[in-house]
Write a structure and sequence with these properties.
The protein has 429 residues and is α+β, with helices and mostly antiparallel strands. The chain has two domains: 95 residues, Nucleic acid-binding proteins (OB fold (Dihydrolipoamide Acetyltransferase, E2P)); 300 residues, BirA Bifunctional Protein, domain 2. The strands form three sheets. An eight-stranded mixed sheet has the order 7-11-12-17-16-15-14-13. It has a five-stranded mixed β-barrel with strand order 2-3-4-6-5. The structure holds 4-amino-1,4-dioxobutan-2-aminium adenosine-5'-monophosphate and magnesium ion (MG). 4-amino-1,4-dioxobutan-2-aminium adenosine-5'-monophosphate binds next to strand 12, strand 16, strand 17 and helix 13. This is Asparagine--tRNA ligase. One of its GO terms (molecular function) is asparagine-tRNA ligase activity. Its EC number is 6.1.1.22. Belongs to the class-II aminoacyl-tRNA synthetase family.
Amino acid sequence: MKTTISEVGKYVDQTVTIGAWLANKRSSGKIAFLQLRDGTGFIQGVVVKAEVDEEVFKQAKELTQESSLYVTGVVRKDERSPSGYELTVTSLEIIHAATDYPITPKEHGTEFLMDHRHLWLRSRRQHAVMKVRNEIIRATYEFFNENGFAKVDPPILTGNSAEGTTNLFHTKYFDEEAFLSQSGQLYMEAAAMALGKVFSFGPTFRAEKSKTRRHLIEFWMIEPEMAFMDHDESLEVQEKYVSHIAQSVLKNCQQELKALERDTSKLEKVQAPFPRISYDEAIEMLQKDGHEIKWGEDFGAPHETAIAEKYDKPVFITNYPAEIKAFYMKPHPERPEVVLCADLIAPEGYGEIIGGSQRIDDEELLKQRYDEHNLSLDAYQWYLDLRKYGSVPHSGFGLGLERTVAWMCGVEHVRETIPFPRLLNRLYP
Ligand code: 4AD
Ligand code: MG
């Protein structure tokens, strides 16, 4: 019976054939232990010299790392193995013998691994991270579909910018200039006026000149937008969504979290509701702890980490000064110097995972913001139209997928959370 490693539990004490790669091997004169992987999982194949044909044992002993093969054997239940099963090998058919695989079981430096990202992805740890990423994407579609949202795809080539002009990627668009999208938000607002509750999931681009463990040049964002919802209602959606992600990863990625040595007790606490503190309170808290920060300044990574350390759940920081936030955010009705917005800061120092706000719904105020931010009416007339024809209160947010994956997996750097990271000065592979 041809099957996959993830399915072997259905065939205990039966003979199966699996297409696999050799991840690693240990052998002596009498026995060979083959660490096999097939993409769906990892399993140990045991080849006992006394129990197989001479030729099979020879093949097993000579098998090189990352060679591909069909392996046939009997599935055994084995409590000690991480997968719960082991394969007693009866025969091997080598498909392709690999020579000198560059990523050996010894330690390698980060730059070397990044140069070999196309192969590094095969490792146990990277495999686990990609599976967790996949689970977060799956849980995202599940959550929004179950809650009445429609998926809408905003364009990637645009003629406007949502998040300021300093980190835009420029490209030629026939005779015009275009940018790669920094955020689908403005288009998602138009979509919300057509479909009510919408969400997008797609790549976004920012020419970030800074090298940090939280910034990618190309990253993926989930951007929900909701008509007839104020900011407080949006926060409730956000905390339910993030809790759903954490609980889904805990439920469906146990083997992966184990491979990553993730402290899962930390993720178990991620249940709505999340604490909310105002920007004012956050500034006060930081000043009390000796940080040099004044009202009106934006938080850096150390500030976010210091705030996050006070909680064991993600924390919302609300009502930032209008000055340091995007042009489209709605001012607080009693304090126009701050806006109806929040950043969601993950625990354990993983930083801001969500930025969200209620949007300006008044045509005149939005026009005023265009002037203040030097935005041309030519490029933004369509966005103004949304306030001209049946304007409604509406709110939305963007969750950065890679930072969320880093947090769920407990990995230090976002470069390990996307298959092929685009970083400052890195376009290869
Ligand atoms: O806070 P940001 O800039 O918000 C927006 O783009 C809004 N237009 C979203 C919306 O309301 N629809 O980005 C949202 C999130 C951040 O909280 C962070 O998680 C992630 O996107 N992010 C990045 N992730 C990796 N690398 C970068 N360079 C990132 N910049 C933002
Ligand atoms: Mg932000």
